[in-house]
Write a structure and sequence with these properties.
Helix content is 30%, strand content 23%. The protein has 268 residues and is α+β, with helices and mostly antiparallel strands.
Length: 268
């Protein structure tokens, strides 16, 4: 499946306004060592460079797919220009040290206002860029933009990715989860797998499990057993109004149930 066509249709953006940005493994490692986030590095771009989302010779970039380690790191909407200056005046002290270490002098730059949007492509493997590491940017007019594809995951892979995200969310602080939940969409993004599934919000699941404190929220009994993987009480998060029926993927529409109560809710 073509990555450009998928994200353009997913977010109703013309294909000409979609751009891909691939960060090299080396750059990602340097950023991590310097304490610079991928977001800061991505949001600020030199004016009139190939990375400029408002380059005068190209249609404006409205949707950016960022690729890291040959997977979709995230999809971002470019909302506009936040500030103009140079790559030093617009950046953090850590980013300035990062540029100095690479012997990059200050350059005229724009810091863009951007927002990460939920996408079914997040975390999905990308193909078509493997032997073109020197080309970091592709637009719809690019030489191989149309060759960049994603593998449609099967249901097992989708569930494994969700399980990983749930663990990350549980390990995070409640405050961080709440911040993400405040801006999270209430409707989950559908994706294509062997069967149709929804990309559920791991923070909703983690928050509901945290709220339940190991007790079924219907029969109020203690979870019947603990997970072998991490020792946490085994409860299942159920949506009161099914997602397939238009229910919202929110904490308010979810409840933590023991397996028996969960089955009863589905089949009673």
């Amino acid at each position: 499946m073509k990555l450009g066509e998928f994200v353009a249709n997913e977010h109703e953006v013309p294909l000409e306004n979609v751009m891909f940005l691939r960060h090299s493994d080396r750059t990602v490692k340097q950023l991590q060592d310097a304490g610079v986030t991928l977001e800061e590095y991505t949001f600020m771009q030199p004016i009139n460079s190939p990375y400029d989302y408002r380059h005068p010779d190209h249609p404006p970039t409205h949707l950016l797919a960022v690729i890291v380690h040959d997977r979709v790191y995230g999809v971002f909407k470019v909302l506009g220009v936040d500030a103009e200056g140079d790559t030093y005046s617009l950046s953090s002290a850590e980013h300035q040290q990062f540029d100095k270490a690479r012997e990059k002098p200050p350059r005229p730059a724009r810091r863009f206002q951007m927002k990460q949007v939920h996408s079914a492509t997040e975390g999905v493997a990308v193909y078509g860029w493997e032997h073109r590491q020197r080309t970091a940017v592709q637009r719809a007019s690019g030489s191989f933009f149309g060759e960049i594809s994603i593998a449609v995951p099967d249901l097992g892979e989708l569930n494994r990715r969700l399980a990983g995200k749930i663990q990350d969310s549980i390990s995070d602080t409640a405050a961080a989860r709440h911040r993400r939940l405040e801006s999270a969409p209430v409707k989950p993004s559908p994706t294509l797998v062997t069967t149709t599934a929804f990309i559920r919000n791991a923070d909703v699941i983690a928050e509901v499990l945290s709220r339940a404190k190991g007790n079924c929220e219907l029969c109020h009994q203690t979870a019947p057993f603990n997970r072998r993987s991490d020792g946490t009480p085994y409860l299942e998060v159920h949506h009161k109004v099914r997602l397939a029926d238009g229910g919202e993927d929110t904490v308010e529409n979810a409840i933590a149930l023991c397996p028996n109560c969960h089955r009863r809710e589905h089949y009673a």
